[in-house]
Design a protein that fits this description.
466 residues; alpha+beta; seven-stranded mixed beta sheet; 12 helices; 22 strands
């Protein structure tokens, strides 16, 4: 009778596991619970907010019932696949507890000041196991559709693609790349078949792994990205480098010192482009969409890529191959309340000018509302960053990991310019193109940048070069 009762009770409870809300991510931090034990939940209801190295997302639960147990408190980093919540799907049929092993209690830690750190596309999470850490302040949430999460749980979508890839966290992947180790040849020892740093070192010449020494500070540290509270008399404030900020730093260093960057510049008269923008704003075919110089610049870059397709490629270090992309997922760097993110317009090369304008408008508004999903930031092939909105003339942008080119657009200013043999005031801007010199040589990079400049100087080339 006892066995029958236990089986019946166990069947009452369903467990919801931490899904992979990105592509190949292995952990996420629980930022906020929206439900508590005893609350009734329905299929598709958002139960918590989590943050990965790519975005903050809301997780919907895929079944009905009454919340029985929350396995982890807020502020806990949980590995993908671990149970985070148990739900009684047959409430009222008994009071027995589910056949579960409760998570260990969180160790007390000092509360960190509030603050949310922005995340960037394609940057992996820090290499950590499940751990307790101070709760960060609430921020803007980027929700993910319930159907997308359900597809992950059912083994559809990106999960199918990931089956062919060795499981490893981004820092471990970089370590393997630096040591020249093919992850496919490494025997994993981590839980769930995840390759660890030790596994990579074991596959290479054994070297000692130094533990990170704690950083001493006179004042209490503040959370990364949080507004630093100035202590009276303090001469400095120390901010721990961890979580998303650490992931960003690793990605930037990895990109800067893995891909040999070359940056070229050109200053161009965009007066005719500005006139075209003004005309398009009055065009009935463009009604309902936002028209600005970025739209024409994006279209110019797409035309330049079509004329020079080799620039739309990626370097596959593991297989020693150059992967030419026959599609363009155009990334647009966007300043948001959560920081700088780079969502991309899927298959931008196939879109008409009105379609591209609509996609740009939707991308920007979604980003500013903090609703950009990880999927929207994955798979970019080339990026535009508009530093001109800050009044900056130009810059030397760092490539997004996995991409071979990024175009920086400077401020458009009225300047004296020689036009038709006379010095006249003209609208002028400076473009900067950074590219991966392993697969984009100077000639190719120069052609792409020259084509963009030529189109912006004479936008009729959008038609004649189409």
């Amino acid at each position: 009778m006892t066995t029958m009762t236990d089986t019946s009770n166990a069947a009452r409870f369903r467990e919801f596991k931490m899904p992979d809300v990105g592509e190949g991510l292995t952990e996420a931090e629980i930022l906020k619970w929206y439900v508590q034990p005893g609350d009734t939940v329905t299929d598709g209801q958002v139960v918590c907010e989590v943050e990965t190295a790519k975005a903050a997302v809301e997780l919907p639960i895929p079944f009905d019932g009454v919340v029985h147990e929350l396995r982890f408190p807020e502020g806990t980093t949980v590995d993908v696949g671990q149970v985070i919540i148990a739900v009684d799907v047959a409430p009222g049929s008994g009071d027995a507890a589910p056949a579960q092993v409760p998570a260990p209690a969180a160790e007390p830690e000092p509360e960190a000041p509030k603050g949310r750190q922005p995340v960037l596309v394609g940057y992996g999470v820090a290499e950590t196991s499940t751990k307790r850490r101070a709760r960060k302040g609430a921020g803007v949430v980027a929700p993910v559709a319930a159907a997308a999460i359900q597809g992950e749980l059912n083994g559809h979508g990106p999960a199918t693609v990931r089956e062919s890839r060795p499981l490893a966290k981004p820092p471990v992947r970089k370590l393997a790349k630096d040591l020249g180790i093919d992850l496919a040849t490494v025997v994993p020892t981590g839980e769930g078949g995840v390759i660890t740093r030790e596994d990579v070192h074991a596959a290479a010449t054994p070297v000692p792994v130094q533990a990170q020494a704690p950083v001493a500070a006179e004042a209490a540290p503040v959370a990364a990205g949080a507004p630093a509270a100035v202590v009276a008399g303090a001469r400095e404030t120390r901010i721990p480098v961890k979580g998303v900020r650490k992931a960003i730093a690793q990605a930037m260093v990895g990109s800067a010192f893995t891909a040999p960057h070359v940056t070229e510049f050109v200053t161009v008269d965009v007066t005719r482009t500005m006139k075209l923008v003004a005309e398009l704003k009055e065009d009935k075919d463009m009604a309902g969409v936002r028209v600005n110089p970025l739209l024409i610049i994006a279209k110019a870059l797409l035309v330049a890529i079509r004329r020079n397709p080799d620039v739309n490629s990626a370097w596959d270090e593991a297989n020693q191959e150059i992967v030419r992309k026959h599609y363009v997922n155009l990334g647009i760097a966007a300043a948001t309340p959560r920081g700088l993110i780079v969502p991309n317009i899927k298959d931008a090369h196939d879109k008409t000018l009105p379609e591209l304008a609509a996609a740009l408008g939707e991308l920007v508004s979604t980003a500013r509302e903090g609703k950009t999903s990880p999927a929207a930031m994955a798979g970019g092939t080339v990026t535009i960053t508009n530093v001109g909105v800050f009044g900056v003339d130009t810059g030397t942008p760092i490539l997004n990991p996995g991409e071979s080119a990024i175009l920086a657009v400077g401020a458009i200013k009225l300047q004296p310019w020689v036009h038709k043999g006379k010095v006249k005031p003209r609208q002028v801007t400076t473009l900067a193109l950074s590219f991966d010199h392993r697969l984009v040589d100077g000639e190719l990079g120069s052609k792409v940048l020259a084509d963009v400049a030529a189109i912006l100087e004479q936008p009729k080339r959008l038609i004649t070069w189409a």
